[in-house]
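Hi V.,

You were right to ask for the full record rather than a summary. Here it is.
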Amino acid sequence: MTVGVTRRNCLLPSLVGLGLLSVQEQSWAGGQIEEPLIDSVRTALTSAIHNAAPPVPEFADTESRLRYLRWMLAMSERLKKKKPNLETRKEFLQTVWYESKRAGLDVALVLGLIQVESNFRKYAVSWVGARGYMQVMPFWTRSIGDGDPGKLFHMQTNLRFGCVILRHYLDREKGDQFMALGRYNGSRGKPKYPDAVFAAKRIWDYQLV
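Predicted structure:
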């Protein structure tokens, strides 16, 4: 999502997945809808947000680490045009991996969502005020954070909020990715946004061998 971009009803998810649309055409206007949270859910989400563990992947064995390094190499090559600086790219991918796994999410799905939401722009802001890589709405910082929406431009904070929120929506929808993605975009039940994310996800799918 980006400032001043309107929803494009003619958007074709297949073209998004192939990377054939421009940055603006890949952007989506929309945002999560603020809903009351019961205390147990608020407490669980707040705890997930405030766990200050650093984004350093840990592996049970050498083979697991080697699979991760192969994934990192492949994803780094695919992301090069969006993030030319190697160190910036590595830090971003490591954090996406960590926060996705921490939330029990498919890393490729998260990368696809980031592509559709912000096109990998750290400081993206939508016309409804959603911020950062995963276009998190500021009300979430009041609900489960410290109330400072400026922190949503911090990479790990934004990715953590986004992943925790997506996990929350997946749980609410009993694992239904289509409906959960609709909730994430504020367009529950409509196909255009989930279809765009699924198409973008194919770019980031990687078979860990």
